[in-house]
Prior knowledge:
By secondary structure, the protein is of the alpha/beta class. The protein folds into two domains: 6-141 and 330-354, Rossmann fold; 149-307, no CATH class. 28% of the residues lie in helices and 26% in strands. It has a six-stranded parallel beta sheet with strand order 2-1-3-4-5-14, with helices on both faces. It is globular. The mean pLDDT is 92.
Amino acid sequence: MTAGKHRVVVWSTGGIGSIAIRAVNERPNLDLVGVWVHSPEKDGMDAGELANGEPIGLAVTTDADALIALKPDCVIYAASGPERDALAIPDYVKLLSAGINVVTTSTTRLVNPHAYEPAEWRDQLASAAKAGQVSLYASGIEPGFAADYLSLVLSTQSSQIEKIHAYEIGLYDDYGVPDIMSDAMGFGRPLDYEPWIAMPGAIEGEWQGQIRMVADALGVEVQEMRSTFDRAVTERTLDVAMGTVEAGTCGALRMQAIGVVDGREAIVIEHVTRLAPDVAPDWPTLPNALGYRVVITGTPDIDCTFDVTLRDRKKAGIESMTSGAGAMVATAMRVVNAVPYVVDAPPGLVSSVDLPLTIPKGAFRTQG
């Protein structure tokens, strides 16, 4: 192993994990030493093959203790599931207590660990990090970048700020997880159905961490959290990845988490999600299937729009033709690129604001 390399384990071989496996294996400053899988059927398979690529000569394992015994510098945690936090928190505690740094895309509310709830879990994580003298960092493309970190970077151009409004605008026709799409979000359901996301406090709970992180960084206090939730029906039957969505049922969602500062709605995170471009045409749109926008009203007014797309899905480790494929790579890279910085960070629970700019080491290609 070349001096200065960080030894890395990737936790799971799902969409984000597979991208991370390929990236870590190619980075000159990182050394992929292990990969964890949940399924016994995958145990012993080649990690590269599971990551939609060529064999790399590293077998995956279901044996978490064996991976901990390798004493990696960092685990890239990308496991997912319907009880994500309840299953992930004990894993984090075990890894941190063993002296292993963790970067994760699995627990999105940990992008602001200082506001993470329940407090009991946060205290367990903080105690484990202290005991192991290591750090835990969570991120993603949104949450974890566009709505908070990018907003703060753009604010470095501001003389005065009146309002920050961040958007994720996406087409989710290729997202094929029915329990999330139908039960949790309400797509394909009549408008009298109450999805989980519409329940009191759900929207505020999901995004208040990012809003409070922006407010704390800018030195203001969020006095109240508010939310809005709207749905629009599709006027035609849609055949999408989650199944058939009948005309007259929910085909688009629009939700806002709102932070009130000095009595006014000052920091807003808005999500507009459609199953087809022609549903709810009067709602905010962007040119591509998935994009992000940050608008800062103030002196000066700032308006930044971006999207992330892929020219070569195979090279990135994504074979499926998903409109969000570029965002998946970006999500994985937010934590892969953070590994050296988290390893060097003081022990504890850290956010993007606590780290320096996580410039990717070894990512630049001079040819090819």
